[in-house]
Amino acid sequence: ITLGAVLIAILVFIITTQLVRNLPALLELAILQHLDLTPGTGYAITTITKYLLMLIGGLVGFSMIGIEWSKLQWLVAALGVGLGFGLQEIFANFISGLIILFEKPIRIGDTVTIRDLTGSVTKINTRATTISDWDRKEIIVPNKAFITEQFINWSLSDSVTRVVLTIPAPADANSEEVTEILLTAARRCSLVIDNPAPEVFLVDLQQGIQIFELRIYAAEMGHRMPLRHEIHQLILAGFHAHGIDMPFPPFQMRLESLNGKQTGRTLTSAGKGRQAGSL
Predict the structure, then answer these.
(1) Separation between Cα atoms, residue 135 and residue 276, nearest integer Å
(2) CA angle, 215 as apex, 209 and 218 as ends, to 5°?
(3) Which of 78, 241, 276, 279 sits between 20 and 30 A of 215, alpha carbons compared?
């Protein structure tokens, strides 16, 4: 090993480090911005290219100082034993990260639900994936979880999601009129898409109340809460315009005197916001 070879090897390592550090910006300016790629695909290309550069730079640098593959086999064997014991979880997450980048079950910008967590994917690294929830908290999830566990990707092939609202109406209300009020509210809501079309069903009759189900569709996951807010306001306005009160379940209350004797009088709710019985 000569001094010149060592200096060249150091130079190779420095160049490799700079290339890996600046590769995403270079690829974006030179190639990716001219291609019709999703953000997840572009990220996968830059990540895999960085791994290849690190591997090539390492092999070239070590070969310059006389460390060849034949001399590293024992080190690889020892590393394999270590992976089989203490580093198996790290290795499993690394391999899972590569699988995620190639198969793309999740991508940057996807909305996912795993366990009790729902949020948007912001980073996919070699060991873990970063998810930002609706409170803007960043949660680090090991990549292995996305390979071995069941999860929901709300935007994998289609970002449209269905929103189901349960709307009560008084028993004496005209069901066709209520249906039209709900459909009108859906048509007027700015966040409800036209295809698939909104649907209304009378799904149950219980305790003097009609239960309707309004099924509508949002263009993306982030629209679901604003959509519910807007359409609830439209439904309340429609009920008020047609003189329909929001019902509540009827109940009876038995009254007793202070000495424990029953008075025999009952206060009854009619389920429409007024009393049917009296004291």
Answers:
(1) 46
(2) 140
(3) 241
Strand partners, 209: 170, 206
**Order of strands, edge to edge, in the sheet holding 209-218?**
161-170, 209-218, 199-206
Q: In terms of Cα–Cα distance, which of 160, 134, 136, 147 is closest to 221?
A: 160
Exposed/middle/buried for residue 210 (C-beta within 10 Å: 0-12, 13-18, 19+): buried
Domain holding 261, by residue range, is: 249-279
pLDDT tens for residues 102-156? Answer: 788 998 888 999 998 999 999 888 789 999 998 999 999 999 999 999 999 988 8
Pair 125, 197 in one domain: no
CA atoms within 13 A on the CB side of 216: 30
Say yes or no: 24 and 69 in one domain. Answer: yes
Contact 217, 164 (CB under 8 A): no
Helices 39-64 and 3-30, packing angle to 10 deg: 170
Is 85 found in the same domain as 35?
Answer: yes
**Tokens read off for 67:** 């460390």
Same domain, 143 and 177: no
Closest to 121 measured CA to CA, from 97, 88, 95, 148: 97
Q: Which of 101, 117, 138 is the last residue of a domain?
A: 101
- Between the alpha carbon of residue 70 and those of residues 75, 83, 170, the distances in Å are 10, 20, 83
Q: What pTM was computed for the model?
A: 0.62
What confidence tens digit (pLDDT) does each residue in 232-243 have?
999 999 999 999
